[in-house]
Amino acid sequence: MSGSIPFYQKHHRHYDRNYRSTEADSKMRHYQSSSRYSAGTSLSTSSRGLKVSSHSGLEENRLSPLPKRSKPSYLALDKENQIIGYVVPIFRGSQEFATGLSDTEEARVRDTAAYMAHRDLFTSGLEMERSEVISRKEAMRESAERISLNKRIHEHEEHFKRMNEDSLMHAPEFVIKPRSHTVWEKQCVRLHCTVSGWPDPRVIWYKNNVAIDPLANPGKFKLESRYNVHSLEINKCDFDDTAQYRVSAMNSQGEQSAFASVVVKRFKGEIDDTLPVPRLGPVSEYGITFQIHIVDTFGVSFGREGETMSLGCTVIIYPALHRYQPEVQWYRDETSCQTWFQHLHTSHPEHKECLDHEEIHYKHAYHGDIVCLDGDAEVEGAPGAPLDVRCLDANKDYIIVTWKQPAVEGGNAILGYFVDRCEVGTTHWVQCNDTPVKFARFPVTGLVEGRSYIFRVRAVNKTGISHPSRVSEPVAAMDPADRARMRGTSAPWTGQIIVTEEEPAEGIVPGRPRELQVTEATKNYVVLSWKPPGEKGLEGVMYYVEKCVSGTDNWQRVNTEIPVKSPRFALFDLAEGKSYLFRVRCCNSAGVGEPSEPTEAITVGDKLDIPSAPGKVVPTRNTDTSVVVSWEASKDVKDLVGYYIECSIVESDVWEPCNNKPVRATRFICHGLVTGEQYVFRVRAVNAAGLSQFSPISEPVEVKAAIGGGIPHASPAPPYGITVLECVRDAMVLSWKQPTFVGGADITGYFVDYREVVDGVPGKWHEANVKAVSERAYRVSELRENRKYQFQVRAANMAGVGIPSMPSNTFLCEEWTIAVPGPPHDLQVLEVRSDSLVLLWKPPVYQGRDPVNGFYVDIKEGDAPEEDWRGVNTKAAEKTYLKVKDLKEGQTYVLRVRAQNKAGVGKTSDVTEPVLALTKPGTKEIVVEVDDDGVISLNFECSNLTPDSKFVWSKDYEEITDSSRLTIETKGNKSKTVFNSPGEEDIGVYSCLVTHTDGASSSYTLSEEELKRLLEVSHDHKFPIIPLKSDLAVELQEKGRVRFWLQAAQMSSNGKVDYVFNDNVLSQGDKYKMNFDKNTGVIEMFMESLTPQDEGTYTFQLNDGKATNQSSLVLIGDVFKQLQKESEFQRKEWFRKQGPHFIEGLSWEVTPDCCVILKCKVGNIKKDTSALWHKDGHQIKADEQLGFTEGVLKLEIAQISRKDSGVYEVVLKDERGKDTSTLNLTDQGFKELMNEVFSFIANSSTPLKITSTDEGIRLYTFVSIYNDLLQVTWHYKDSAISFSDRIKSGVVGEQLWLQITEPTEKDMGKYAIEFYDGKGGLRRTVELSGQAFDDAFAEFQRLKAAAIAERNRARVAGGLPDVVTIQEGKALNLTCNISGNPVPEVTWLKNDREITSDEHCILKFESGKFASFTITGVNTSDSGKYSILVKNKFGTESGDFTVSVFIPESGRK
Question: Strands 387-392, 398-404: parallel, antiparallel or unpaired by DSSP?
């Protein structure tokens, strides 16, 4: 058997130990208990004055956890202590103590009792006589005979049991169950039960599901087992003993449990729970203050796994009080571990690198570090023990165990872990998994409900198995929902026993489980969880779990034998990579219920990836024996547990762990190093999936105390060149230049400080940003307007924050209002060569009045005066980079950049550092390559790499982050960018920059022509596969002839083709005609017609030397039937075309002037062929004699409208036959036609213009022709305009307009008119803002004022004649209407002289409207030219008339 046992199980203490001895002893005891020789009932029974001295030894052994060393006595004595014989023990064996008596000890007690009972019967009535007559020899002989008889009887019984083993063995059964008790406090209580079963059951007592250990509470609990009667005695009960007690009996045939409750009552008024517990001695709350001083302390302590470590310190407390001892609390990792003065033992690897706190209350505390080294493994090269074993999600028969991976893997990588379980109160460990599990998480199933378990984990590699981990906290296998419904739950405040179990409802099948879901999924197991059915009062429900492969409907039951009790289940042995569905059914004695809703498809596999390796590691000096190690965190890691750090002395190649417990931070202090030695460090990350790869090895660091903090120059140098990019009332945007030296690691960010300068006196520095900024530009907010400020910047990396820069110039915080843009910033020079360089920059933060639309680059020699600046580009550059050419080799240059917008060119940027135009030795250029597989790649090599150097590839000088089109590979000092699928999207400028060098960089321009050339080269390299211009296709020719064809791109004269149909090679014949044109590469096969037997797969197999290719065409099912039908149709069409027919069916066309023309193309017509047009069945036009010079029939529809909708038809006919073509212009057909008309109208529209009227501003456009069905939408700021009385739209002729009445500044913005054509539409826009709005608004105001003036100016509305002839002496009365607002002033003139009202000439102006002119009696002197002049502030108007007075004939005489 041992040969088939795995090596990791051979050394287990529980493996096959004492099993047969225990079984044999149990059978013997069972036989003796029923034997006629067994008559005793108590170990302390005495008869006729005899006693056995060994009895006291047995009692003593039973109560003591350790055997006595005194030699036992086996003499039989009478009342006078006279020796009358020997007592020979029946069985003697080693004892194992767990809880109560062991099986061996119980057997010895029972055998001794049986012998004493037998001896009492044997000596009854003959005690004195036998003591005088029988000699010692005869007594010993009789004793030996009895022993021999018992042995023979035992052997006979053993033989009988072996022959009839099955008939005798049975599961435990409670003959008498324990009963519940209610007692007063400080009384004793005893619980009894009687158990039967064979083999003899093992009995364990539990208190609230935790096994009772009498040794843990000496004198509190007493366990006894006699003649299958078992008892638990609780001594001096207190209130905490109120609980539910369970007794469990178990043997190889099964297990049975019984329950009893104990309620401890307290006398009323004995203790008032509301008062605080009395405390002995004085306390600080009552005016005593202690002064505490720690004299001897402990520092960093080192120990080895398995050893004992003591931490101690001397504490002086004043005042010293007798009978009062202060409380001292110990902590490990901020968790209380022990109380009072005790030792802390580091006997487990989990104590490695842990910070222990000895916290002394009353105002004093002390902290120290413990570093524990790994102990020696049982097998050299075995891994360290796992850490932090915990139990999660405990249920009735299922518990999830988690742990942390050890830091030490041993000589080989860890293959996995074994999980062991042990029932609380026993020492029997059981391995839970047969094969090692890789994931640091495992569901343990098969637990017994109600029992408590502890767990441990062991790691295994190729060499061996580690020490077991520290055991977990005990956990009970119990449904969390059942804890509140436990039978016997006590209520200490009332002393009552409350039973909440529901009465079962028999005969009811349970419903469906609810909310089934997958809570965990790995490649080893899948965990399901659900909720019980909603019905209440049902009998105890159990569950069946079913699975189904995704895409099928074949459900299989997983747990076919025993249903599970917990609403959780773990499934093993699933196929990795497959997708499954799961569902659950409930069952009880009434039957199996309906299944739950299935889960979503779950693919079996690890959902958690191993973390990526940490980044750069930077060590920094700390003390003479420690180093501070910092590193870059792992990227995109899920559920990170922490990091392990290892160190190695330079050139030793021996790595030692610095911490055996993962740390979450990215900074760690490594203690215990050798002073003066050079160390290197590496780090790796860990999560539940495993350990990552190691990080890059750090730079060496010498272990010695740091002066001024760490390695010299580990932090970066100060930045410089602080400038202002933008300024508003309360904020300023700053920029600065990168430090000349970045320190021991890359810069991770910058910190900005500012201070106010008042009258030239700087104030106190203030932090502008608490969190580091990665960009070299930052907006400092919360400044005060018109105040002066200075700034300083500090750079930071992993080693720390560098010293601040020099204070900047003093800047005034005032808002910029200039129209031109601010200065560009962050200038960078790349690809420096003897005759060229590339300049990069960032656009200005301050845009000015308008957006930036270009940049200008200036250059001059480094030592040239300012007036020598000259422009590099005459046309503004649109992008933020420019290649500067035509440089002089060896000359030093400086550059600057200016931005421009519509307002002009803005401020210049800061000048770059002087750049020497010289190609450095070893400079390489990007080389494009095409390998044998036709893969196109860009390659760059750098000869002066540093350990921190990285290749950074960019497209158009923006770093490439999307790997969908490009794949970047870097090995050593070479880097390659591979085009995944070259296309037009890849056209651009590609550049590569190598960091931490002296500017090694290069670029390559991939133009459209270059891409085309590279694709051709790639194609040539792929020549072994004969390229096809077109795959195998089928087409129908005239008369329904079927043509199969393909075209090869290139084939030689030796090329061959095989024609295959359904795996059969075809040959030339009557049915198949083949043709292969090697010049064009066209391969053809013809068939006159298709029959049902021609359904199948057609393949052309090409062979040209080594190059091969093939193309297949599958013609089966509906595809073949459609082709066959089309072939037959084409044949019929051929016959149709023998008479007049339509070559092209009836269609429509829209002309530029929006006329619709219906047309069709006809063929094979004669002079007597006629064409009839119909609409909706009514003839509309007839062409009896057609001159088909072009073979086209047309019908023109001008000014199409909805009434032209309908079905149009053309009929061709002559004596040979007729043909018909129909065009449906209803619904969708008419809509599509009108959309085309609308598209022409839209395209004919003029740009949107702005004009002004006396009512407001009008936007308008003209179209060539307007249709009433045209749909247009006006937009304002990309939103459709809701029309109102103030904003209206309309059409006048071909003008479409939008009127904005009484416009305001709120109407400023972008307006657009959108023409709907059923597609993308057409939009005309105009910007009504800025100068355009100002001009239009001014014109509107002018027109409005003119209209108002015209409307309100003074007017003579009428009523005055041109000439008045009146007889002398008559009265003249003239009246006219006057209008105007305000009311005009009226003046009458005669011969251009003002006249006034008098008795002769009466002038009136009434109601502001009517002016009257009256002459009471005219005479000749009143003749003349009269005028009325009306005037107000808007204008003046006059009305003239002539008065002629004549003297009648009679008057003259």
Answer: antiparallel
